[in-house]
Amino acid sequence: MKITDLKERINERLNTASGVMTLLVVGITTAALAAGTAIFIQIYHSSMTQNMRISGEQTTEQISNIVENYMLDIDRSMESIKEAFSYEKKERDELLNYLVELRPDAVAVTEYDFESGELIGAWVGNEKLKPEIFTNLSYDRELIPENTDYYTISEPHVESLFENSYPWVVSITGVVETAEKKSVVILDTRFSQIASYIDNIGMGRHGYCFIMDTEGNIIYHPQQQLIFAGLKTENTDILKEAPDGSLESDGIIYSLKTREGGDWRIVAVSYIDEMVTDSLVSCVFLLLVLMLIVIIATLISSIILTKHITRPIEKLMTAMGEFEKDAAGFSYEPVRGSNEINSLSSSFGHMVIRIQELMAKVKNEETILRKTELRALQAQINPHFLYNTLDSIAWMCEDGRNKEAVEMVNALAKLFRISISKGHELIPIEKEVEHAKSYLRIQNFRYKNQFSYSFNVEEKCLKYYCNKITLQPIIENAIYHGINRMIDEGEIKVDIYSDGDDVIFEVTDNGVGMTEEQCENILKEDGPGRTGGIGIKNVNDRVKIYFGERYGIKIESEPDMGTRVSIRMPKIEEEYIEAK
Amino acid sequence: MKQNKKNPRLYLAAFLGIAVIAALLHFSYNGFIKPDIQRKNHKITMITKSTDSQFFRSVFSGGNAAATEYNVELVTEGPEDEEDYETQNRMIRDAVSDGTDAIVLSAVDYNANAEAVNEAAGRGIPVVIIDSDVNSKAVSCRISTDNYEAGRMTAEAVELVTEPEAELNIGIVNFDKNTENGSQREAGFKDAVSADKRVKSIETTYVLSTIDDANRGTKELLSLNPDINVIVTFNEWTSLGVGRAIDDLGSKDSVAVIAFDSNEESVNMLETGVVDALIVQNPYAMGYLGIESAYKLIENEQLESTDVDTETTIVTAENMFKPEYQKILFKYE
Fold first, then answer.
1. Distance, in angstroms, between A498 CA and closest chain B CA?
2. CA pair distance A447, A479, nearest whole angstrom
3. Distances from the Cα of A207 to the Cαs of A103, A231, A531, B33, B70, in angstroms?
4. Alpha-carbon span A381 to B280, nearest angstrom
5. Structure confidence at residue B2 as a pLDDT band (50, 70, 90)
6. Which of A168, A206, A285 sits opposite B330 (nearest CB)?
7. Domain residues of chain A, as ranges?
């Protein structure tokens, strides 16, 4: 239940403007950053790799030059060794010992008989030759060059000629021919010169260079002892096959260069991981941090936006929805938010109030109108009145007062014809006057001339229109409430005259009159009159509904003096009715 | 009015936001990226049984190689005397109070060094044992020769250098009984050699781990048991002592010597026939792996194994100059 609620809430949230905006911004930012990062990684990776290749190749080139220089140096040493052999023994010993001592990397010079390979001379500087040499690793018959122009370089090996000292050396083997004999000379040399250079070359944090021969045997490696101890291996199988240039394998870039002469290859090793990936990781991390910040910022701004705009708009929306559903019962709580929202809200508030007022009014008027019409309809067939009148006519006939009876029947007929008036509400005043006269005649018969009546109608008013059955209820009221209770003869005066644009109907009686309170009550009383006909209020309401508030009934009365009821209506022309 | 009330708040929020972003970037750079590039990492103290034997010099040089690779500060120290466990204990405690991040130890005494090791480990400092073990459960990792197996190899070497028909009277010149690696080697040797039917007798003498005392002990052993024709001994110093004694007595042809570890002198003895076989360990690897493991422990990385056996090789006069044996026997400097 809770989860679905939450889902719904999230869905709802996402459907709002700020939700959509948040999603969009976060999505676009993420996508852009991700794409940017991917492209960046791609470009960075390839350019870094390219740089590494270039710097690797440059390094191998440099080392190659160093090795070349070293070889030239060896050349010169071998030349001077050969030269030394052209001197006498004493001078030769001096020269060779000098050479071994002076050159920091020279370990020993040894001379062997060309044919037998017997050691015939050794110049070893400060070291001490073993009294008995069991193994000589420097002398290798296979490495002896064919003539004096060349010399060969051995693989690294241990110097086995000294007592208690076993340095690692390479042997450079050459042939010397003097007048008396041909012999093999071997210079054992350390790699210190090249080594100190190679050791100091860094390819990134862990990268390095090493030298191997074309067979893949390592000649010099800065981590030689690690290799000896079996803690590290170089993938020389691949490397010996590879041509010069760069090679990428297992996240390592190897740059290879074969030395001129073709026997040694210089290899630079750099790790893509540490050089590229490490910095990439930093960059990507930075990007991720940025991304996170952007997303957080977006979220925060969306929250702010939601708080200031979306939330109030939502509230406004709900309010409007509720208002739509139940306009009358709705009560509006103003929504607070940004300025725009505030003014929207207050406008809406005003509108609500106004609409509610209007609605109440319309509704009220509608009901009144309906009721009024209904009453008017009822009045047309007021059964009591009809019954009483017919009763009176019957008595007249019985008494033989036929003329009066005819007059009575005529009046009744006219009364009914006018009150029906083909269903029209508005009828000419002339007809209304006739209606009132018919009514008064009937009543006069019934009340046996207890009262007299008179009409004073302005001629020009007759053509105007008025609500039907306007005068009759007032006259009825005058008869029942005013005249009926009188001992003296009553008098009812009906005046109709124009007053500017209006027409005034006045019904005046000299009856018992009413208190102010009674006057007010008459206009409030909704129910039918005592006789079941139309009340004064009904008339007043109809006039007001048809013509507006300023029209209607005014009652002036004084107890024991009489009552004057005046009705004000606009002058309604026939054209107006037709237009309607 | 409202506008005025709101604007300063917005500016404040924007300012704070920017400040937070800047701070985040700053800290993330300093906290994660920069140190990776710049920081000189940890301090590891390596305490060995002694500092001047070829064996431990190789250990140090292996350790230095690893220290360079992993960018750690390495302090190497050890007592002058290979029996001096008290100095070792003091060194362990000093290292701890000096704020070392890890200790790599080759223990003089299996039991007497245990407490100091426990104390160090108790204070959260990882202890890596190389070469010679200590009686402590707090040790994080052990890297050494499989000493019992090395003992068995010694017996194998005896078989290699003696005639198949000969009767063997064996003398053992071993160092301090309390040192774990010596006693393990002796046990391995005795277990293996007892299967050899040619063996008539085994005499054992214990000497101090010095050349002179081993020399004296060997001569004494030989004078008491003149029929001894095989002598085995289990470390670098006693090997030299035995070799010198045999050389002094001129009995290099009558007595076969199986010695331990390599240095210039013992290699020379091997070449001249004073020593007939050397059991060569891989101290460089011990040093290297010791520091590597210590580094990984500090960094909380997973170790591949907490018990690493380094390689041991039998070197004889015949094979000593073969290229692969040269690499084992002779250190590249």
1. 59
2. 9
3. 30, 16, 121, 20, 13
4. 138
5. very low
6. A168
7. 381-579
Amino acid at A415: L
Q: Which of residues 293-312 of A touch B (CB under 8 A)?
A: 293, 297, 300, 304
- Residue B122's pLDDT is what? 92
Question: Which DSSP letter does residue A561 get?
Answer: T
A278 CA: distance to closest CA in chain B (Å):
9
Chain A CB contacts of B319 below 8 Å = none
Task: Compute the distance between CA of residue A213 and CA of residue A208 in angstroms, rounded to an integer.
Answer: 17
pLDDT at B24: 67
**Nearest C-alpha of chain B: how many angstroms from A188?**
15
| Cα(A22)–Cα(A297) distance, integer angstroms | 10
Chain centroid to Cα B185, Å, comes to 14
Q: Say yes or no for a CB contact (<8 Å) between A225 and B62.
A: yes
- Write the DSSP assignment of B56-73 as a string of letters: HHHHHHHHHHHHHHHT-E
Fold of the B147-280 domain: Rossmann fold (3.40.50)
Domain parsing of chain B, residue ranges: 147-280
Q: How many residues does chain B have?
A: 333
A384's enclosing H/E stretch is helix A383-399
ipTM of the complex: 0.79
Q: pTM of whole model > 0.90?
A: no
- In order of A304, A312, A315, A316, A330, the CA distances from A321 in angstroms are 25, 14, 10, 8, 10
- Kindly report the number of other CB atoms within 10 A of residue B326's CB atom: 21
CATH of A381-579, one of 1.10.3720.10, 3.30.565.10, 3.30.200.120, 3.90.1700.10: 3.30.565.10
Question: By the CB < 8 Å criterion, does B285 face chain A?
Answer: yes
Mean pLDDT in residue range A122-127? 85
* DSSP per-residue letters across B235-255: SHHHHHHHHHHHHHHT-TTTS
Instruction: Give the full edge-to-edge strand order of the sheet including A490-499.
Output: A451-457, A490-499, A502-509, A562-570, A552-558
